[in-house]
Design goal:
Structural class: mainly alpha
Strand order of the largest sheet: 1-2
Order of helices and strands: EHE
Oligomer: single chain
Number of domains: 1
Helix content: 25-40%
Largest sheet: 2 strands, antiparallel
CATH superfamily: Hotdog Thioesterase
Length: 74
């Protein structure tokens, strides 16, 4: 089976946020979200490069709304 071109590639990860990922008021730590983003980026990059990859740099991430324990994020 031929791989799709990068322009057609996509990945959707869905995760229910757990209490262990939250601070004392129930908001999910930004670092937990960054970790999930990095995991998704790795999966896509690894698939298309056929080798191990690393995140070299993230310039900026802006969080506009809190994410709470029990929420499903995708």
């Amino acid at each position: 089976m031929a791989e799709r071109p990068l322009s057609e590639a996509n990945l959707v990860m869905s995760v229910v946020m757990q209490p262990s990922q939250a601070n004392y008021v129930g908001n999910i730590h930004g670092g937990e979200i960054m970790k999930l983003m990095d995991s998704a980026a790795y999966a896509v990059a690894r698939k298309h490069s056929h080798t191990n990859v690393v995140t070299a740099r993230v310039d900026e991430i802006q969080f506009h709304l809190p994410i709470f324990v029990g929420e499903l994020i995708s």
